[in-house]
């Protein structure tokens, strides 16, 4: 007992007496920290400093405040936004024939281009005082998604001027003169913008841009002018073939010191009319046969004045930060909107098709093999809609959540791929045969474009999500890095000492919380709600604590090598991502008023998110470079094993059962599929067949009952079965007519297009 008391006294003295702590703990740890500190390139540092930490910060720190999540409010549309969707967007949908756009025109029809321009579809983010609509991120996302349910090519055409590009950059950073010159003409479509960032040697590593602008003096408009000689070669630039104004990112250099002592100023953005001397707009690309405009641009020794730099000369060299902050908005709005649209279409059409398509005498939706894939479609669509709303809500709160939008871009485009693959599997021949009736093919073909652009998904997952999140979201590491970089060592040590004490308490708290929750099944963790979703909050707190302690141990052991351990950092990024997606799911359930008919999809989505988060933790532990640390992590995180299982078969059946009929739950996760009077699209065709057959369900039951009793043969062709049932007075004339009409619609829905020649 006396030994224990002496040990406690020693610990108290060691940590409680400042001079002793500084000598034996702070100085050695500080020295070690500076050695293992990961070196940051200038672009990494700028990316780290750009944007804001939002809800992901709570998830990363081990003890999320769930009331903060629910306090964000519910995303809503203003009356003006709703009116635009109900009128202009609906009108645009009636003008879209995607098969004609993709296979015949290779472009939008002129009348649709003109309508988009006149009605402000290219001005969704431009302030009203410049003639724009100044809509919210949520409205922007909803508009793009609704258009995408009918045409990816049309949706991309609308989304690009409203995401990363001149409009957004000018709104945030432009000089007053630049705003007044360009924004009104962009708002009415008089000017069409594109933004040239990617080149043959610079893709995901946009900081490696080889395109260059050299500061020099030349004659411009008859006057001696200080400006830039630009040389560039860009590709994959959407809207470039039709653009009238080019946003350009390049490396700015001042070898002759005309601006000062700095020779390499860094990445800079400028705005150049495409009819300016020397600007070359090249030929079109063919992005997986989609019809949106995409191509190349180049220029050699093109002179522009310095005041064409976005933001003016004072923003020389600040382009990378500008791009990172604006990319975060684009990543969180445009591409997630396309993915969510895919989910809505896949759910609406697959549930309908599975009800009207029959094999072996019953709807294919009754087969468990089909239900397994269909449950994934439905739950993933619920997840996509939830993440779309939460992410755009963050942007509308005027934060710039760069980590959140990277999560949204990566995971939502991947989920979009998943729902389309499952929908294609179920609808099979209906899905693969292109034609006006087909509603899956073009989205399926276009999906890899979303996977590739605005940061390739592989690198987004392995480098960005955890790479930025670990430092940005951690409550101590970034401040400790700043302390390590201080020139005054005494001040640095004092700052580091106070941070270290807090960091140690933080780490111990997370370790105890993770271990205690694992032993008790998280039963004593707090939750903001009671009822069927309460345990999910508790489990997420446990996983958040586990991620926090694993992050601390990883940084301690691997230091700067952690960013090169891409597989491990990607898995830890997956944990953060799954927690974010799960948060969005729970919030949507609350925002919708805790609808009981949503619960099967919520249970499926939440079970899957927790399963994947726990699996990512387990895989990271199994591959941890230090086996001793790996054993310690396993004891703290999974002392009784990993019991976070994938969704059950019973849950999958429940998800499908609620969606193979019309109802509010189905409407809530398919509402983006634009519907209008006179709609003759494939989506409308299969939906009408579904509604007609469901309306006749009681009559079909009569036929089944008569077949089981032997009054009707079991394998008669449909129309003959109806006629025999009428002759035997099993059904009435009205019921016979209803069955014939429903069957006519059913056959039209399951049929596909054919052509004389291709």
From TrEMBL:
Residue ranges constituting the Acyl-CoA dehydrogenase C-terminal bacterial-type domain according to the UniProt record: 471-755
Cofactor: FAD
The protein's name in its UniProt record: Acyl-coenzyme A dehydrogenase
Family, as annotated: Belongs to the acyl-CoA dehydrogenase family.
NCBIfam families in UniProt: PRK09463.1, PRK13026.1
Matching InterPro entries: Acyl-CoA_dehydrogenase (IPR050741), Acyl-CoA_Oxase/DH_mid-dom (IPR006091), Acyl-CoA_Oxase/DH_mid-dom_sf (IPR046373), AcylCo_DH-like_C (IPR036250), AcylCo_DH/oxidase_C (IPR009075), AcylCoA_DH/ox_N (IPR013786), AcylCoA_DH/ox_N_sf (IPR037069), AcylCoA_DH/oxidase_NM_dom_sf (IPR009100)
Keyword Flavoprotein assigned: yes
Gene that this polypeptide is encoded by: fadE1
UniProt keyword terms in alphabetical order: FAD, Flavoprotein, Oxidoreductase
All residue ranges annotated as the Acyl-CoA dehydrogenase/oxidase N-terminal domain in the record: 83-189
